[in-house]
Amino acid sequence: QVQLVESGGGLVQAGGSLRLSCAASGRTFSSNTMGWFRQAPGKEREFVAAISWSGISTSYGDSVKGRFTISRDNAKNTVYLQMNSLKPEDTAVYYCAAYKGLAPAYWGQGTQVTVSS
To answer: For 75, left (φ over 0), alpha (ψ -120 to 50), or beta?
Structure first.
């Protein structure tokens, strides 16, 4: 079992930056692929980024490539999402997820990110 708590969301102007953090509990954190997803009002949950257990492999959704960076610190049981050049369309609730195999299995409660134009 993995429990996840996100933080770092807030209100930012377009072009600004935010860094989200996801603190995980559970002994298996370092062996899990971790990911970030987001959900805007009236839209389906969307993949944002994922990182392998070692941190060597990362992947990103097309809408955030080149602007967002996912990273992790296994010693701190924390995964991060650095978001730069934010756009109003990035406004959403951002969720951290821990994978089991190839699919997310555990979810945090989410943190709101609002980008004003």
So the answer is: alpha
Amino acid identity for residue 27 in this structure: R
In whole angstroms, what is the distance from residue 46 CA to residue 116 CA? 20
Backbone angles phi, psi at 90, to 5 degrees: -85, -5
Which region among 35-39, 74-78, 81-85, 94-98 has the lowest average model confidence (pLDDT)? 74-78
For residues 1 and 94, what is the distance between their CA atoms, to the nearest angstrom? Answer: 21
Question: pLDDT tens digits for 34-71?
Answer: 999 999 999 999 999 999 999 999 999 999 999 999 99
Which 3 state secondary structure label does DSSP give 96?
strand
Count CB neighbours of 71 within 10 A.
15
